[in-house]
Each structure stands twice: as structure tokens, then as C-alpha cells.
TrEMBL record:
Organism listed in the record: Halobacillus shinanisalinarum
Family per record: Belongs to the enoyl-CoA hydratase/isomerase family.
CDD domains (alphabetical): crotonase-like (cd06558)
The name this protein goes by in its record: Enoyl-CoA hydratase-related protein
Gene3D superfamilies documented for this protein: 2-enoyl-CoA Hydratase, Chain A, domain 1, Lyase 2-enoyl-coa Hydratase, Chain A, domain 2
Amino acid sequence: MKQYEALSVEIKDGIFWITLNRPEARNALDSTMLQEIDTAFAEAEENDDVKVVIVQGAGSKSFAAGADIKQLKSRKPLEALIPGMQSLYTKIENSKKVTIAAVSGYALGGGCELALACDIRIATKNAKFGLPELNLGIIPGAGGTQRLSRIIGKGRALDMILTGKIIAGEEAERIGLVTYFVSEDELIQKAESVASDILKKGPVAIQLAKFAVHKGYDIDEGTAMWIEKLSQAVVFGTEDKEEGTSAFIEKRKAEFQSK
Ligand code: CAA
């Protein structure tokens, strides 16, 4: 396991936990933390025993309060063009592992965008989501202008981005920004129970289901259907398909062996 400064990282029962750990700065995403998130995801990606990555913030006050504004202040135009937070989040979206954001407290700017890049979002009553970048004279630049509208629809996304309003966990669930809304003390348990449902599935099917949904979403339906068909052709050739179908017929639980 690698050593981390701005994160706490733990692997437990097939889950790779990443805790953003700068509570004194509301877990703002500075360059060290971003570099370490990249390293941690690479570590999870290479580990065959890991199927799910859960990202959370240290302390209940904040998931992540966005890009580190003190570092952002001196950033020059061309620096926005080099791979940074946006590329990192795209990498996370494309991860073969399932990603879950467990959000308590502030998920603002780049913190909200990190949650949007995850496959599943769980929020507590105390969660607060927003893209307040326009208050700083900039725009959301880590996928927020694109992923938010794909998740909650263009009208609501424009409202959130243009007003910079911050919404609580309950409203986030109502508009589909998060999938689950739980009390503060249920957050970890809920994240683990969602992960545990996923952990029972075959890894190849997990990866290809995720791939088909993400890659098919932005293209024409006919091509997307081919992505689905070809992904199915791949899983039809796996031991997992043999095991899953046999287990059903034999009335037992499937034990998927592939890595
Ligand atoms: N960057 C750097 N430092 C931050 C920070 C950020 N995004 N958010 C909070 N901090 C620091 C504060 O400067 C403060 O540090 P000091 O103690 O040294 O003064 C400390 O964290 C605690 O912050 P507050 O006293 O403000 O705490 P609060 O509980 O009263 O408020 C907050 C919390 C609502 C999150 C507030 O800190 C805040 O509004 N933060 C900025 C949120 C924001 O604008 N995020 C977008 C960033 S831009 C971005 O993300 C661009 C992109 O698209 C990638």
C-alpha cells in the first residue's frame, strides 16, 4: 500500500476506501490531494481484489469544498488546458471499478464534480451540493457543466450553475443528483450495503455494464445498442456467465471467480 499525505486509504472486504483528509481546509482539493487521488485510483485499478471504490471526506463538515482557491488564484489561462482535475475525473468515470461518493457536508465546485464523476452518490441530511464557481468569476471546469446536466437535466443544471445555489441532501435526492439520502450515522453502512450488492456480481459484467451505460449515453442509440451487444458478446464467453446461469438453475448462490 502506498503512503498518502492528504488522504487516508484503506482496503477492506473488496472495497477501496479513499478519505479526503484536509478537514482544516474543508477537504479543499489542492495539488497534493489531486495527485494522491490519481495515485489511489491507480492503486485500486490494479488490485484484482477490489471491485468498489468509496470516496468520502474526513469529518462530517465537508466532503470536499472544491479546488483550492488559494492555488487557483495564481493559475494562468494555459494552465487550464493541461490535464488536471477534469482529466482526473474522466479517468475516475472510466475506471473499471464501481465508484461511490459518500457525501456528508459540503460538496462544492470540484468536490461536487468529483461526486458527479462517481457512479453512485449517497448523501446525508447534512450534505450540501453546489457549483459556486461563478462567484469566483470562473466556471465549473472539472466536468460540472457537462455531467450535472446529464444527471439532473439542463434546466436544473443551468439554475444551479448560474445562481451558484447550494442544495441540501434531501433536495439533491429529489432532483436525482444523488441516489440515496440517509441520516448522518447511516452513511457508512449504506455505502457498504450498496457496495456489498455490487461485490456479489461478476467483475467482467460489472465493468462492461458500467462501460455500456457511460459510453452509450452520449452517442446515437443505434451505435449505443451495438456497444451493448458487443459487451454482451464478451460476457457470454466468460466463466462468470457459466457460473451465474448454472447457479440459478441449481438454486444456489453464484460464486463468481473471475478477477
Ligand atoms: N480552497 C481553499 N481553502 C478553502 C476552501 C477552498 N475551496 N474552502 C475552505 N477553505 C479553507 C478556508 O479558507 C478556511 O481556511 P482558514 O482557516 O485558513 O481561513 C478553512 O478552509 C475553513 O473555511 P471556512 O472558515 O470558510 O469554513 P465554513 O465552515 O464557514 O465554510 C465553506 C465552509 C462553505 C465550504 C466555505 O469555506 C466556502 O465557501 N469555500 C469555498 C467553496 C468554493 O467556492 N468552491 C469552489 C472552488 S473553485 C473550483 O472548485 C473550480 C473547479 O471547477 C474545479
